[in-house]
Automatic annotation (TrEMBL):
Region (Disordered): 64-111
Bias (Low complexity): 65-101
Domain of life according to the entry: Bacteria
Keywords for the protein's UniProt record, in alphabetical order: Membrane, Transmembrane, Transmembrane helix
Protein name stated in the entry: Uncharacterized protein
Sequence intervals crossing the membrane: 5-23, 29-49
Length: 111
């Protein structure tokens, strides 16, 4: 079952037992209605346990998801992925060495 559905059921049962306990307490007293109060407390504790368990599972899933998530291919310069797959990215706006439109060695490209 869905954990949200279970938490909703526990919370509804707890409030229902609490309402029944109040009505029974007014009618018969604490001794005869104590069991309803205990059921109410048990349902509240189960609700809390379910909520904390779901939160810890979500936290673990987020930690394992972040740890298992590997960064994409990044170039050595700036840690940014290259524009073309398999080719290093350009440095400071200049075309990369693998780029077909490169300038001759020793000359600066025209701007």
């Amino acid at each position: 079952m869905n954990s949200k559905l279970i938490r909703t059921i526990f919370l509804a049962l707890a409030f229902g037992f609490l309402a029944l306990w109040v009505l029974e307490f007014r009618r018969a007293g604490l001794f005869e209605s104590y069991w309803l109060l205990l059921l109410c407390v048990i349902c509240f504790l189960l609700f809390q346990f379910s909520r904390l368990k779901a939160a810890s599972l979500a936290k673990q899933a987020a930690e394992t998801g972040a740890a298992s998530k590997k960064p994409g291919k990044a170039s050595a310069v700036g840690g940014q992925p290259s524009a073309v797959s398999g080719q290093p990215s350009s440095v400071s706006g200049q075309p990369s060495a693998a780029s077909p439109a490169r300038s001759k060695p020793g000359k600066n490209p025209k701007k």
